[in-house]
Amino acid sequence: MTAPDRPAGIVTRILAALIDVVVVAAITAALFGAVVAGLFVVNPVSFSWPHGLAAETTLVTVVVAVGYLTVGWATAGRTVGGAVLGVRVVANSGARLGWTRSVCRALLCVLVPLGLLWAAVSARRRSVQDLLVRSTVLYDARKVPAPRAPAAR
């Protein structure tokens, strides 16, 4: 395997996932903040802070997480966490994952997050999710062109 084709390790993948958790939490908080602000605007006099929304919060968080992961993997091959850590998700053939496999992988990652730990013992560094949807996470060693030095005067 060439350097760009090297499978990403478990530490890199966990760190990318933690960054993605923060992004999903921020998106979910923004959505709930917008809903609460809307409720306040509609009826400020009798407004009270919503409570007892554990089921709704969980459902919205799952939907946001699956949507976020799906869009990132299907379009760019990476999420914010993947971009920060320099990894991308591809099909085993090296092609883009596509929408169907991205949705399946996202659902598996959100509903069975411990499946990621299989990458620590897998010879090919693949998680349970990767095995089921035939994907792999690679270090993305594409070079970004260095800025040119200013011309001498």
What assembly state would you assign to the polypeptide chains in this entry? single chain
Spatial order of strands in the largest sheet: 1-2
- Structural class of the secondary elements? mainly alpha
- Which sheet architecture does the biggest sheet show? 2 strands, antiparallel
Question: Percent helix among the residues?
Answer: 40-55%
How many H/I helical runs?
5
* Poorly predicted runs of 5 or more residues: none
Q: Classify the beta-strand content into a percent band.
A: 5-15%
Overview of the structural elements:
The longest helix is centred in the N-terminal third of the chain and has 33 residues, at 10-42. This protein is mainly alpha-helical. It is globular, with a radius of gyration of 20 Å. Helices cover 53% and strands 7% of the residues. The protein is built from 5 helices and 2 strands.
In short:
By secondary structure, the protein is mainly α.
Primary descriptors:
two-stranded antiparallel sheet; mainly alpha; globular; 2 strands; 53% helix; 153 residues
Helix/strand layout:
Layout: H1 10-42, H2 54-76, H3 80-85, E1 87-91, H4 99-111, H5 128-133, E2 135-139
Antiparallel strand pairs: 1-2
Helix pairs in contact: 1-2, 2-4
